[in-house]
Amino acid sequence: MSRLSMLPRPRESVFTGGLDPYRGDVNAVCPPNLRECVLAMEDCCEEAYEAQQLLRNGTFDLPRMRKVLESQRVFLLIDEGTVHRYKTDLADEIEPQINELIDRAEKGLNALNRREGLIQSKVEVAQAMQSRVATAPTSNKREERRIQMLAKQRRRLEDEVKVLESEILALQHTKPKRT
Predict the structure, then answer these.
(1) pLDDT at 169
(2) How far apart are CA 170 and CA 97, in angstroms?
(3) Largest CA distance in the chain
(4) What is the DSSP letter of 10?
(5) For the stretch 121-152, what's the b/e string if a residue is b when 16 or more beta carbons lie within 10 angstroms of its beta carbon?
(6) Inter-residue contact 105 to 154 (CB < 8 Å)
């Protein structure tokens, strides 16, 4: 261990510099208490440096070790009978829930089919009304307004029918086959 205060002074620079920092009296003698203080401070600095080095040496590999420990997998070997038993237990556990979901989907599909039928009948009634109204001459503004309202309603119902048909087709495509 070397003491910084005991090292020889560095040589004077050969280059001319700007302001020369104050160095005090070069030949001054330090009091013993100040010298002990400086030596104690240097000891503390060296201890802190050694502790820092020890800590750095102990933790420099921490990111790699953390990654290794996180990705550790453990495999357990079991026989086929155990696997088959667990598989059947799992199937018995989730089968009622799956059947309930299938029933709900079928009920929803039936409700959508009924709704589509109702909307389709409304469209047919609106078309029949329009054809009757189109053949009869309009006598006043009230009738013309009513015809315009019915035409808008018909277009809106036709759009609804198209949306419902697309939903039914989507449900039919995603409907699982029951075994």
Answers:
(1) 86
(2) 22
(3) 127
(4) P
(5) ebbeebeebeeebeeeeeeeeeeeeebeebee
(6) no
